Description:
By secondary structure, the chain is an alpha+beta fold. It folds into three domains: 47 residues, no CATH class; 131 residues, Roll (PH-domain like), CATH 2.30.29; 28 residues. It is built from five helices and eleven strands. The strands form two sheets. Strands 8-7-6-5-11-10-9 form a seven-stranded antiparallel beta sheet. Strand 7 and strand 8 form a beta hairpin. The radius of gyration is 22 Å and the shape is flat. About 12% of the residues have low confidence.
Amino acid sequence: MTRKQPTEYHVLLEGRSMGPYDRRTIVGMRIRKTLSSDNLLIDNHGVRLTEGDLLAERVSQNGFNANGSGVFSLVQGTYAASLLGVQGRGFAIPAFKGEIEARVQGDVLRIAGRHRKGLGWKEDRVKIPLTAFVHARLVGTRVDLWLRSESARPGDALQRMSLELFSAESAAELVDWLPGATPPPPALAGSGAATAASGYLPWLVVIGVVAVLVLVALVLAFGSVL
């Protein structure tokens, strides 16, 4: 039986105890490469585990409440992951930040997490049919996926999504659930991971426009005075 998720962890680095940190912070440190799967953690019950052990536990324990339907018999695999980026048009995949849940459920891959909305955060999810995955590539703990939506027309470029699975075993297992996805052709395989667009870009544009308007108003005001 999987033990109940504790709320805080201390990280042991070079003989020193750092923290406490919650799970989301630990995952963020892994995404930023501050920690590796071998780093030792101590939870608030005194139990020792590695960072890899923590991420290998079932994500359904960490508070996502994946579908609220109570139907768990269709779940074939659940993985902790992070979204590295999405490129191209097709499925409406939010710009998830931090840890996400990648769940193979029935005939879909369900991705759940949180993303920026305005000045706050929103919990969200997207379901992608397994038949939509055309190509898949493993690069260590990273999975690159090429998708084609039902609305795509012949000749349209494939949408691309890259996920970090934190362990090579989890990455390989996720790809195994996509039997219809073939290795990408050389034209696609030569590129690196899909990158995420910055969520702050729209705000930077707005701030820039406001700054220009203020500058124009000041010039007009001083001009009328002179």
